[in-house]
Write a structure and sequence with these properties.
Layout lengths: L18 H13 L1 E7 L5 H8 L5 E7 L10 E7 L2 H13 L2 E3 L2 E3 L2 E4 L30 H55 L2 H8 L8
Length: about 220
């Protein structure tokens, strides 16, 4: 009987001394990271670095675009700090106070990072478990079930695209309303300032017998 066949490279198990070490380093990195959700599409790496720099030393920043609408949809940002303590401090501060980018408050959410947030995460070492995959063709016993899953995934993608468009329109409408309110408030403040400057308020206070202590 001939010698046993050598397993192919795809069947060889990873070295137990290397794989756990790589994953352990990744786990340590996760502890130093936080994720920001609903970040404005106009945000850039320098902007985020400046905003997070007040909480500690920023090591790296990874901006994740929405695959369905990379230009207009809100972004997610994974930020790696120097220590886990700095990451926890940043999450706490952002949850309790407005997050500022270039002097403007942004309604972002801060979360402690978990391994599943990283698309390039290494494979977790397994205890002898081997994963396999195979192509399913028409006529196979599992074809109908997997085809239903495929169609359901397409339906969910279409629904998500529609929902994102609705949210985007609502956000644009809200932004226009807020901008209009800001203009109205500025106009009122200008009129008040003009009345004080022209001493209209002083004349009115004397006319109605009221005391005005302004300059």
């Amino acid at each position: 009987m001939g010698p046993a066949a050598e397993p192919s490279s795809s069947e060889k198990k990873p070295s137990p001394s290397n794989a756990p070490s790589e994953y352990q380093k990744f786990e340590e990195k996760v502890k130093r990271c936080l994720m920001l959700e609903d970040v404005t599409p106009q945000a850039t790496i320098p902007m985020v670095q400046t905003a997070l720099g007040q909480f500690g030393t920023v090591v790296s920043i990874d901006i994740i675009n929405d695959p369905l609408d990379p230009k207009h949809a809100a972004k997610r940002v994974i930020v790696e700090m120097k220590t886990p303590r700095e990451a926890s401090h940043a999450v706490k501060e952002i949850r309790e106070h407005p997050f500022m980018i270039k002097g403007v408050p942004r309604p972002v959410r801060a979360l402690h990072a978990v391994a599943t947030m990283f698309p390039d995460r290494p494979q977790k070492p397994s205890s002898g478990t081997k994963r396999t995959c195979e192509w399913v063709k028409p006529g196979d016993p599992e074809w109908e079930k997997y085809n239903e899953f495929k169609q359901l995934a397409k339906k969910h993608a279409q629904e998500l695209t529609y929902l994102m468009e609705v949210i985007r329109k609502e956000e644009e409408k809200l932004a226009q309303e807020q901008e209009e309110k800001v203009r109205e408030n500025v106009k009122k403040l200008d009129e008040i300032h003009l009345c004080v400057k022209d001493r209209v308020v002083h004349r009115l206070s004397r006319y109605y017998g009221m005391k005005f202590e302004g300059d």
